[in-house]
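Quick one, T. Sequence first:
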Amino acid sequence: MVVFFLVALGASAVGAVCGIGGGVIIKPVLDLLHLETVPTISFLSGCTVLTMSCYSVGKSLLAGEKSVSLDVGTPLAVGAAAGGLLGNQLFALARQLWDDPDRVGSIQAACLAAVTVGTLLYTLNKARIPTHRLQNKGACAAIGLALGCMSSFLGIGGGPINLVVLYFFFSMDTKTAAANSLYIILFSQLCSLLTTLLTNSVPDLRWTVLVLMAAGGLGGGILGRKLNRKMKGESVERLFIALMVVIICVSVFNAWRYAVQ
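Structure tokens:
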């Protein structure tokens, strides 16, 4: 039981600092430890990320901080909410097509590894890549839809791809991108959870584990917010890069392990 809390706490703290939500750490780590089934891990990860993002975004808005760009962030978040619904349906379809949960877990892990490799390559070379300042709300919503769908299907809440999109399409710096990423994650995860509840598709789980992970998500949000305010943008980016390397290694291993089981 303690392992679930510690994973949620550590992942949520780092996720709040970098703006990646924490699910991108929770999902592969719990897959690696093999403590629950693939559907249960995806659900627990999403609930933990939702708790952390609720705290982080709520605290930021109540404090009157201007880090979240509502003109851009809100269309992205609305699109992400719709994407969360679509991603949930895609995950349900994958479970129907491949009745073996390990097969679905292998696909998720392989997709996560591929997305993270692309994100790492962009991050390492972003100084040489021109960026944009997209303002069209329809385009923002479409981008949010893609982000929400991907994060919900992979069970990661948001992940590094959010930051790359915010860098490239909106020319945001590291800390601003982190804040807006959490705002997007909040909407996508909330819709994903509501869909799961309304369709009565909550996987079998131990409710004590859910409570512990939600508590870890809240604690991680509190800790991560304090760390983010103290850390420089360059430090946040170095942490982000190191984290992506670890995620790639764990995801590749998980994809292989699920495939051979």
